[in-house]
Write a structure and sequence with these properties.
CATH superfamily of the largest domain: P-loop containing nucleotide triphosphate hydrolases
CATH class of the largest domain: Alpha Beta
Number of domains: 3
Shape: globular
CATH architecture of the largest domain: 3-Layer(aba) Sandwich
Distance between the termini: 60 Å
Number of strands: 14
Length: 378
């Protein structure tokens, strides 16, 4: 049996390290039971482990080297399963690393055995908190999902914009395919049209097969454009035409295709700010500003910190509690990185509390939580 199979650990999501975005897109089209996240650099892969909860199936489609493998092992959850499609020699040296060629890996049977039985979607994406602030957010999300309008989620980094997007998608398509997620910084190069609309075999030298774009994968479902502030002008023009006419063409193809999907976008600032600063076209602004939802910073609902801590420890299977003194310390901080920073601090605290009966938050862990707007030292 493969690692992580039906008798092993249940995986919560897939993280792919690959320089070939076609491979990540193929897995997103193949896997409907679990979220699939792509990364082109090792550090980007490590950030996925920080932002997502649970055990990942890690697929290395790019050589990482022995030092990179060691770093990966130290930074991803211990219950994760790591598979390589390009490093058979590393798999021979490291028995915990399984080598599976891409053609074998990219099949429903292999993926199902690696992932184990899927968990319910409702357990993967949860907004934790009982404060009035969080209750208001839940109400806004419910209204946004019923509106059938383009929804824009905005707020500081780490406030849960992607979780909110998943909740809206689950309301719109409770039994449908997973939401298609695109980071707009990945759509800011010369291949933006290929990534959005797909390619026809032979359209250019590396187009060795027909490929689906993000729009085609999202047809009948939801397309979530994250970090909208990074969307380049060329891609904005392509997106505007798609939203106006609902049609597109694959690169190298003259056939006009149609797409219907719910559009969700997210950024760190409101759409109006992006428009005023010239980072968003005015005509595209009016297409995207259907229903805005602001995700609140953690400092506005610190009373939810004990619940967030409990939720995080439960997801990790960590039986030990955080000391009362440490909880009070957590509630006194500003939390510039919001919930993402909180979870990062908890991971460090767990690592430092090995052999102890309770988890304590030592002051040195919190040194990175600097207060905002402090003057520079020069």
């Amino acid at each position: 049996m493969l690692p992580g199979g039906q008798g092993g650990t249940i995986m919560d999501f897939i993280a792919v390290l690959s320089g070939n975005w076609h491979h990540t897109a193929a897995l997103k089209a193949l896997v409907t039971s679990h979220p699939v996240y792509g990364a082109t650099q090792a550090e980007e892969l490590f950030r996925i482990f920080t932002s997502e909860r649970g055990s990942p199936l890690v697929i290395l489609d790019t050589p990482l080297g022995s030092k990179g493998i060691a770093s990966l092992r130290s930074r991803c959850p211990a219950s994760s399963v790591v598979v390589t499609t390009s490093l058979p020699e590393m798999a021979r040296e490291d028995e915990t690393l399984r080598y599976i060629p891409w053609k074998t890996l990219n099949t429903p049977e292999t993926i199902t055995e690696l992932l184990g039985p899927p968990r319910s979607k409702s357990s993967l994406h949860v907004l934790v908190g009982k404060s009035p602030v969080m209750e208001k957010v839940r109400q806004e999300i419910a209204i946004a999902a019923r509106s059938n309008l383009p929804v824009h989620l905005y707020g500081e980094t780490g406030t849960g914009k992607e979780i909110a997007a998943h909740l809206i998608h689950q309301t719109l398509h409770p039994d449908g395919p997973d939401m298609v997620i695109a980071n707009c910084s990945d759509l800011s190069d010369t291949l933006a049209r290929c990534k959005l609309f797909g390619t026809r075999k032979g359209a250019f030298t590396d187009a060795k097969e027909d490929t689906m774009g993000l729009v085609e994968m999202a047809n009948g479902s939801t397309l979530f454009l994250d970090e909208l502030e990074d969307l380049c002008p060329t891609t904005q023009s392509l997106l505007l035409r798609l939203l106006e006419h609902g049609t597109y063409q694959r690169v190298g193809e003259s056939v006009t295709r149609h797409a219907r999907f719910h559009l969700l976008t997210a950024s760190n600032v409101p759409l109006s700010t992006l428009r005023m600063t010239g980072r968003l076209r005015s005509d595209l602004f009016y297409r995207l500003c259907g229903y805005p939802v602001k995700m609140p910073p953690l400092r506005s609902h610190k009373e939810d910190i004990p619940l967030l801590v409990s939720h995080f420890l439960q997801n990790l299977g960590e039986p030990r509690p955080v000391t009362e003194e440490s909880l009070g310390r957590l509630e006194s901080l500003y939390w510039q990185g919001n919930v993402r920073e909180l979870f990062s601090v908890l991971k460090q605290a767990i690592a430092r509390s090995v052999g102890k009966q309770a988890i304590s938050i030592e002051p040195e862990i919190l040194e990175a939580d600097e207060q905002p707007l402090l003057p520079f030292p020069w």
